[in-house]
Design goal:
Blueprint: E1 3-5, H1 11-23, E2 34-39, E3 45-52, E4 55-61, H2 70-84, E5 91-94, H3 99-104, E6 108-113, E7 117-121, H4 126-135, E8 144-149, H5 156-167, E9 171-176, H6 186-196, E10 203-207, H7 229-251, E11 255-259, H8 265-278, E12 283-287, E13 291-292, E14 295-296, H9 299-307, H10 311-317, H11 320-328
Parallel strand pairs: 4-5, 8-9, 8-11, 9-10, 11-12
Antiparallel strand pairs: 1-2, 2-3, 3-4, 5-7, 6-7, 13-14
Helix pairs in contact: 4-7, 6-11, 7-8, 9-10
Length: 333
């Protein structure tokens, strides 16, 4: 049996893959950048797999061929492909019943949502190393909180959120999304956040890496209005469970702050998933969004002002630290 790359214009093969995934009760992921398939002698697809960035997705073998080693070959092919483009730290989702199989292929459990899904990576100490790095910034106390933001870019709304959360916490950890899929590069967003909260002595800024709101844990976040909300709910539940079971005890958190989300259905789903996952184990505090001229301050408004070169609008939406950074890096002139 040979494994072949499936091209976007190969409608027959894509149809067969959809049928196989449906037959094996696997939801087709709309966010893929490489797909392969294994054909039998009659050119029927008997196994398939895909990837997006550093995650393996949509892995399936026809039920009549399971146990013949085809999934092993598909995963090996995808891993080789990922390595060929410089991606060596890999992640995947799988059903609970398939976890042992992927462990035998060198993947390690990160979080397991019983009877739903398992999230795994191919580095034995990948997640534990990340948690160990977080411990270096541990600030013991009785009222330790966190929030996560993309800050694309850091607005007065973000600053208001941080200041409000910090005023209600003995220490606040601000996680900045590490995924580099935004208008502003990760390093730019991180620097704008650090400058924008530098006046708050009880705030620490940290990266999420691949373990919170990333293409690995919550890819729907980056699709926004194009996202399947049912898929987003599952992904958000996984992201929330990972946070509760691992980040919370590592940093001894007692609460997590989020901004109210009247504009983004996906982020609203995310907030709902956080509330459901946390239950009474972690307090979830929702802060009303800051408004300017009766309109919510959003990064979308800021990016539009930048593109329109509307300096007056921009100065009303971002703190001086962000404005000066945008000037310094020639985003505005």
């Amino acid at each position: 049996m040979t494994i072949s790359k499936i091209y976007p214009n190969d409608k027959r093969s894509l149809k067969l893959i959809d049928e196989l995934l449906s037959k094996e009760q696997i939801r087709k992921d709309s966010n893929l950048d490489y797909t392969c398939a294994m054909f039998d002698d009659d050119m029927n697809i008997i196994a398939t797999g895909s990837c997006f960035k550093n995650t393996l997705r949509c892995l399936a073998v026809d039920n009549s061929h399971q146990g013949e080693g085809f999934m092993n070959q598909i995963v090996t092919h995808l891993v080789d492909y990922e390595f060929s483009r410089g991606l060596t730290h890999l992640f995947l989702y799988t059903k609970n019943k398939s976890m042992k199989f992927f462990k035998d292929l060198g993947f390690f459990e990160i979080v397991n949502i019983e009877n739903q899904i398992v999230f795994m990576e191919n580095k034995r100490t990948g997640f534990s190393d990340y948690l160990d790095n977080l411990k270096k910034d541990l600030k013991p106390g009785k009222n330790i909180a966190s929030l996560i933001m993309n800050a694309n870019p850091f607005t007065l709304g973000h600053q208001y959120l941080v200041e409000t959360a910090a005023s209600q916490s003995s220490h606040l950890y601000v996680f900045v999304v590490s995924e580099d899929r935004s208008f502003f590069h990760t390093n730019d967003r991180m620097e704008m956040v650090k400058r924008g909260v530098s006046h708050l002595p009880n705030v620490t800024v940290l990266p999420t890496r691949d373990y919170m709101v990333s293409s690995a844990t919550f890819p729907s976040y980056f699709l926004k209005e194009k996202a399947d909300l049912e898929v987003a709910k599952v992904q958000a539940t996984l992201d929330a469970t990972l946070f509760l079971e691992n980040i919370v005890p590592t940093l001894q958190l007692t609460k997590r702050f989020v901004g109210q989300e009247p504009l983004s259905p996906v982020t609203s789903v995310y907030n709902d998933a956080l509330r459901a996952a946390f239950g009474s184990d972690l307090e979830l505090v929702i802060i009303d969004r800051l408004s300017v001229r009766e309109e919510v301050v959003s990064a979308t408004r800021v990016r539009a002002a930048i593109q329109d070169k509307n300096v007056d609008e921009l100065k009303q939406l971002v703190p001086a630290t962000t404005y000066h950074y945008l000037e310094e890096k020639h985003f505005i002139g």
